[in-house]
Amino acid sequence: MSALVPIPALAALSTIELRDTQTFIQVWSSISELSDPEKKFSIAEVMQAKNNFKPPQKAFATLGMRKDAVWLHIPVTVTAASNGVWVLDIDYPVINRIDLYITSEQQLIQQTTLGNLQPRAERAIDGRAHAFGLRLKPGSNYDLYLRVENIGAMILPISLNKPSMFHIRSLNEHMLQGLLTGLALCLLVYSLAQWVSLGEHLFVKYAILISGSILFSLLQFGIGAQYLWADNIWIETHLGGISALIAIIGTFLFIEQVLAGPDLNKWLGRLMQIGAGFCTLVAVSFSFDWIDIHTVTLVVSTVGLLPTVLGSPGAFVRARRGDPVGIYFLIAWTAYFIATAIMIELIKGRLPANFWTMHSFQFGATFDMLIFMKVLGLRTKAMHTEMLHTAGERDKLHSLAHSDPLTGLPNRREIHTAIANALALSTPEKIVAVYMLDLDGFKLVNDQYGHDVGDELLISVARRLQANLRPNDIVARLGGDEFVVMAKELSSPQEAQDLAEKLLSAFNYAFILSNQTCRVGLTIGYALAPFDGQLTSELLKRADAAMYCGKQDGKHCARRGEISENQGLLFKNPSLESHTDSAAA
Fold first, then answer.
1. Which residues are CB-contacts of 329 (< 8 A; sequence separation ≥ 6)?
2. pLDDT digits over 210-235, tens only?
3. Secondary element (H or E) of residue 74
């Protein structure tokens, strides 16, 4: 069809009257449309068939998804008092092509082409969306014709503005986009940094979700084309569908991991993974033009809400038992469902195009991102708690393996390790002393008062030994009533003997227990490194032999086990030897 047949005039729509006192005018109520299925109508044919135009059948300022070209007619009259300077603004950046024709008295006065696929250098006003400056003659009547083509939704919030109002509205939108995009970028950088530092894949899945929302907003509101990818036709025709699919993929993966466990059936989790894989396949197919935008729109409108549907049972279960993760998910999904449903209905032409519906997905995505960040915080806290619990269990196991369960002192394994480490640094100036301690009279107490009193006495003995040692000294329990003390960095053998005498003196006093008062003595045998040996086993053997020698000599004494000239053990009473030396002098 290359020509139009005029039909009788329909009831005329109201003509827009331009007055300078009214700085902003929505023109949709005065618009009529004409379909051009074969995209062949010329402006001359359209002007001749002006009566063929009909009022739009879709909601306010939207024509829904269309494959045809659409002609729009806007009748305008300029009052005599107006200066005739106006800006025609079509505030939906992702319209591919808009041909504007200005006519008066059936004569074409001016023609220009707008659209996101047109070179920015040829735009009358290089801005975020599509705008054209009008210089109209006061007191004259005009017919504005717009020919619109778009592979996506034909959302057409068309307005006439005085230049000052146009700049105010543009500035406000830029500030809003800067605020929302800046917030999203901060969340993206944070999530990636957490992923790098913690290695938790949940953060990168959250980053995928955010990336899709950011790319969609940058495209949908013209910021990306204005500042990032000017004149890139592939991005302008593909990024809308791809970014929406990326957001859905991230949502699938994020929800599946957060709700993984007993609250999410395995088949639901598996279905979410399949959904993410399917959307990835659709995104790749669309990027290579194997499918068109209408197929992508169908997928987004049907699959977009699927993560919410699949994850709802698990979220409800968690919310019912008071888990904040489930509660936050339900809040986020309510907002996500509403925002997505509004956007889908707007694209299909069933909801009017206004500030709130056009920004619904962006507002909903921002709200979701903040709620999901809270969920990430809860997840991180749970991970931290789990790590602390694991560390506590590990420490507990280590303690059980290396400490005495009754007294809490190091056990045989731990004291052997400590002695070996200390011996590696022992010198004649930094002596290591190993003491074997055995209680005198403990068996009598245990037999007379029972094991409970005996255990309480052992605990008290351990505390008294610790109280009489230096901070760096170590006391361990080998079992029964046998203890080992290691003291390092002693300056002389006499200092080792002084420490033994101090421990003996500590047992001159009774132990006051819960229900009894008990007295036990202490017999000590010790050896010094490097003088008496340089191996842990050697020192313990000599200290043990010296301790038994002390038992035979009457108990409650300290004996040192050192090597004699014939390599046999020689047990000395260092305190007695010291007194003998003094008398001889």
1. 255, 258, 259, 311, 315, 318, 319, 371, 375
2. 999 999 999 999 999 999 998 899 99
3. strand 69-78
Report the run of H or E that residue 562 belongs to, with start and end.
strand 558-563
Cis upstream peptide for 574 (omega within 30°): no
The answer, yes or no, to whether residue 258 has pLDDT greater than 90, is no
282/245 Cα distance (integer angstroms): 8
Alpha carbon 109 to its chain centroid, in Å, reads: 57
Q: Where are the beta strands (DSSP E) in 262-308?
A: none
Q: Is the distance from CB of 71 to CB of 46 less than 8 angstroms?
A: yes
Tokens 């894949």, residue located: 201
Contact criterion met (CB below 8 Å) for 53 and 71: yes
Lowest mean pLDDT among 184-198, 420-434, 538-552, 566-580: 566-580
Calpha distance 581→585 (Å, rounded): 6
| Residues 130 and 114: beta-carbon distance below 8 Å | yes
Nearest to residue 300, comparing CAs of 252, 248, 357?
Answer: 248
Distances in whole angstroms, Cα of residue 95 to Cα of each of 92, 222, 226, 240: 7, 10, 14, 12
* Alpha carbon distance 461, 538 (integer Å): 26
Cα separation, 311 vs 252, whole angstroms:
9
572 pLDDT higher than 60: no
Q: What are the helix and strand counts (H, E) for the chain?
A: 17, 20
CB neighbourhood size of 319 (10 A): 18
**Element housing 428 (H / E):** none
Write the single-letter amino acid at 168.
I
Q: Which residues contact 84 (CB under 8 A, 6 or more apart)?
A: 18, 78, 134, 135, 136, 137, 138
Residue 8, strand partner residues:
none
CA Rg value for the chain: 44
Query: Tokens for 401?
Result: 């393996």
Give φ, ψ of 135 to 5 degrees.
Answer: -120, 95
Strands 431-440 and 482-490: antiparallel
